[in-house]
Amino acid sequence: MTARLIDGKAFAAQLRGRVATAAAAFTEQAGRKPGLAVVLVGEDPASSVYVRSKGKATLAAGMESFEHRLSADVSEAELIALVDRLNADETVDGILVQLPLPKHIDERAVITRIDPDKDVDGFHPVNAGRLATGLDGLVPCTPLGCLMLLQDIHPHLAGLEAVVIGRSNIVGKPMAALLLQQSCTVTTVHSRTRDVMGHVRQADIVVAAVGIPGFVQPEWIKPGATVIDVGINRTGDGLVGDVDPRAVEVAGAITPVPGGVGPMTIAVLMRNTLVAAGRRAGIAVDPAL
Ligand SMILES: NC(=O)C1=CN([C@@H]2O[C@H](COP(=O)(O)OP(=O)(O)OC[C@H]3O[C@@H](n4cnc5c(N)ncnc54)[C@H](OP(=O)(O)O)[C@@H]3O)[C@@H](O)[C@H]2O)C=CC1
Ligand SMILES: Nc1nc(=O)c2c([nH]1)NC[C@@H]1CN(c3ccc(C(=O)N[C@@H](CCC(=O)O)C(=O)O)cc3)C=[N+]21
């Protein structure tokens, strides 16, 4: 059997189309466009590429894009002062500070300074708490994008066994929270787990967010399982995921890298910006987003 390839790129394009329609309706009602501010510190080439593609996607969705590029030696105080200005700016609905930050800056101090209602990355502890307790908030883009792809394949997620590999605040933990909210039976495995393979073998759904190229072996996968590969690893062979490509021979459905989760992350960022704008302005946005 060979797995169905989940076309994240096409799914993301559809989502961006729906966001653009809803953004136009917002602009009509609010008399201004939704606005996203992206802050980049330093000149890491990969981060520069992401920031540029986020800016392009923002404009294409009919939203305002504010880019702030700061030099790598900017002080933490200066960066926090910029966050304060963006928090106070009525034309800014979403704020994203590109990670990682240079070592001399405390990421936590910066993230916790962002107004939780403008935190379109969903990284603020207030949003993590809202997700954990089932309140409306802003949900991290990558795991929400993964959930959308999963719901397309499994309209009924309730009762399925899901294994999340990785427990970062950015991907693994919010992914597990979302799957639990959908009534999956969720297991999170990590570097201290005794038998990662043993857990993965049981899973109807595997989400790999490890950061090790080709980590998940085909023999670990239950035949027919759905596999979501979050990994973005730059190697001599180009961009590769956290799942061994031979897994296509065992899985029922699998996301490719590139063209899987990555494009969804940016599309959900657009969606989160529109949702934040709607809530801030008291304007209803399409709930199907
Ligand atoms: N497609 C996209 O849009 C995005 C992709 N990514 C990619 O996703 C991947 C994960 O990112 P992120 O969560 O930020 O990474 P982190 O490095 O923060 O987390 C990696 C997790 O994997 C776990 N881990 C490491 N080694 C093993 C092992 N041998 N067995 C089991 N678990 C292990 C770690 O465990 P422990 O906690 O015990 O150390 C940790 O929880 C990366 O490739 C990243 O580039 C990330 C964000 C967005
Ligand atoms: N505050 C913050 N928020 C983030 O969401 C954030 C961040 N910092 N730092 C870095 C990671 C990584 N990330 C990706 C976004 C898009 C692709 C993406 O579009 N990938 C394409 C390929 C792109 C390529 O070829 O390089 C794909 O997988 O098809 C990947 C990874 C967001 N991140």
UniProtKB/TrEMBL annotation:
Q: Name one Pfam family in it.
A: THF_DHG_CYH
The protein's UniProt keywords, in alphabetical order, are: Amino-acid biosynthesis, Histidine biosynthesis, Hydrolase, Methionine biosynthesis, Multifunctional enzyme, NADP, One-carbon metabolism, Oxidoreductase, Purine biosynthesis
**Domain Tetrahydrofolate dehydrogenase/cyclohydrolase catalytic per the UniProt entry, residue ranges:** 6-121
Which annotated residues bind NADP(+)?
A: G166, R167, S168, I232
Alphabetized GO MF terms? methenyltetrahydrofolate cyclohydrolase activity; methylenetetrahydrofolate dehydrogenase (NADP+) activity
Q: What is its EC number?
A: 1.5.1.5, 3.5.4.9
Q: Where is the Tetrahydrofolate dehydrogenase/cyclohydrolase NAD(P)-binding domain?
A: 140-279
**Would I find Kinase among this entry's keywords?**
no
Question: Which pathway does the database say it acts in?
Answer: One-carbon metabolism; tetrahydrofolate interconversion
Which reactions are catalysed by this chain? (6R)-5,10-methenyltetrahydrofolate + H2O = (6R)-10-formyltetrahydrofolate + H(+); (6R)-5,10-methylene-5,6,7,8-tetrahydrofolate + NADP(+) = (6R)-5,10-methenyltetrahydrofolate + NADPH
- What is annotated about its quaternary structure and interactions? Homodimer.
Q: Which family does it belong to?
A: Belongs to the tetrahydrofolate dehydrogenase/cyclohydrolase family.
Job of this protein: Catalyzes the oxidation of 5,10-methylenetetrahydrofolate to 5,10-methenyltetrahydrofolate and then the hydrolysis of 5,10-methenyltetrahydrofolate to 10-formyltetrahydrofolate.
HAMAP family attached to this UniProt entry: THF_DHG_CYH
Q: Which NCBIfam families match?
A: PRK10792.1, PRK14186.1, PRK14188.1
Q: What name appears for this protein in its UniProt entry?
A: Bifunctional protein FolD
This protein's species is Sphingomonas endophytica
| Gene from which this protein is expressed | folD
